[in-house]
Each structure stands twice: as structure tokens, then as C-alpha cells.
Amino acid sequence: MIHEVDEVLKTLLSDGVLAGSGIDVTFDAPTRDWAARRNSPTINAYLYDIREDVHRRQRGHLAVLDERDVIVKRRQPPRWFRLSYLVTAWTKQPQDEHRLLSAALITLLPRELLLPSELPGALGAQGLTVPLSVAGIQTESRSLAEIWSALGGELKPSLDLVVTAPFSAAPEYDAGPPVTEGAMVRARALGDTPAEAEERAHRPRQVAVAQEARRTRSGRGAGRAT
Fold first, then answer.
1. Does 182 fall in a domain?
2. Cβ contact 119:8 at 8 Å
3. pTM value?
4. Most CB within 10 Å of its CB: which of 26, 29, 34, 43?
5. Looking at the record, which segments are called Disordered (predicted)?
């Protein structure tokens, strides 16, 4: 689902403040060689870290409903992962890069939550809201200086963008058919005929008790008459 998160970010950055500007949005590693080949203004979102958000891990099972809201399958809860992106701007002038970063920040700051209707493919099919944070306090073990050093480039202004997305890789399994009838207990007295026992089994308890009481009273009255 990482590629679906990429698709969402590309749509946000292209359709926000920068809509119609012709700015390229890429997801490449900003190495020295890559930077030397750039010949047009670009916003680059490099995915540099993937970690599970263990605080969101859940146990148990989730129900899968059909169009009638009947449980047809069950599956394990999804696992949530923090996808960390290094967002940078690339132009010929530092001032222009700062303008692009400002535009990206203005676009992303209001989007703290991404609704399921905004998410593509299997990511949106889960029906879950996806958190998004930008330029927050970096809590990962790798510092930005270490990342730039590993890329072989020089440190430059950037935005740390984190999308916490659900991943559901566990298989679904069929659930049993819905219960349409209540439980039934059949009891038969020693003097009952099979027909009487069958009738008592299908009658509500209150009706059966009332009829049994009337039968007892009528039997006592017949005994006194004789």
C-alpha cells in the first residue's frame, strides 16, 4: 500500500497551492547525481523510513459485512506503519526553493487526517482514517544529517512528513451463517403423548404454563363431580 500513499501525497502536493504551476512531484532518492540531472522546479518526497506504530496494534478479530450488514467473514485488525518522507524543493535559486517549501507546508498543514473517500485502492477500501503530520518533532533514531550523509548530498532545508497507514495482510476466513432461530428445549412428561410433547415444544412458555394450569383445574372439577 506504500504506492497508494505515494499517490495520495502526489495528488495533495499537485492540487494544493501549487495547482497549475507545472511543478514536478517526485519520490526519488535525492542523491548528488540525481540533483545534478534536475532541470525543472521539483518537489521531492523521499521515503526514508518505515516503522510499525506499535501503540496502534490491536488484538482480536474484525467483522466483514455484506450489503445487508450481515457478517460474512472475519479478519485480524490491520497493523499501522509510520511512513516518513523527506520533502525537499529543487530549483536554481534558494529563495525559489523556500517558496516551494512554504507552498508545500501551507498545503499539508490543514490535512491532519485523510478520509477513506480520499484514499485509493485497498487503502481506501479499509474504511479507516489515515493520520498525516508535517514538520513535527523527529522521533526516529536516524537524524536528518545522517540521512543526507548516506545519500551523499549536502544538507538542505526539508520538511519531515509522516503518514501512518494501515496494512492488512492477514487472510480473511468465512464466518458461520447468521442465526435465524432461537434455541429450543423439548420436555416430555411421562403421561404425554408424542403429539402433546411436540405441541409444548413449539408453544411459548407463558402460554404452555397457562394451558397446563387450566387443564389441572378442569381435572379437579371433574373429580368433584363424580
1. no
2. yes
3. 0.69
4. 43
5. 191-226
Give me the residue label for grid cell 497493523. Answer: 79
Q: Are residues 209 and 167 in the same domain?
A: no
The label of the residue with cell 508535517 reads 134
Query: d(Cα 59, Cα 189) in Å, to the nearest integer?
Result: 49
- Summary mean pLDDT of the chain: 79
How many CA atoms does the CB half-sphere of 125 hold within 13 Å? 8
* Neighbouring residues of 66: CB distance < 8 A, sequence distance ≥ 6: 72
Q: Within a 10 A sphere around the Cβ of 192, how many other Cβ atoms?
A: 13
Which residues span the domain enclosing 199?
Answer: 194-225
pLDDT in tens, 111-164: 999 999 999 988 888 888 999 999 876 655 567 778 888 888 788 899 999 999
Examine the domain organization and report whether 86 and 43 are in the same domain: yes
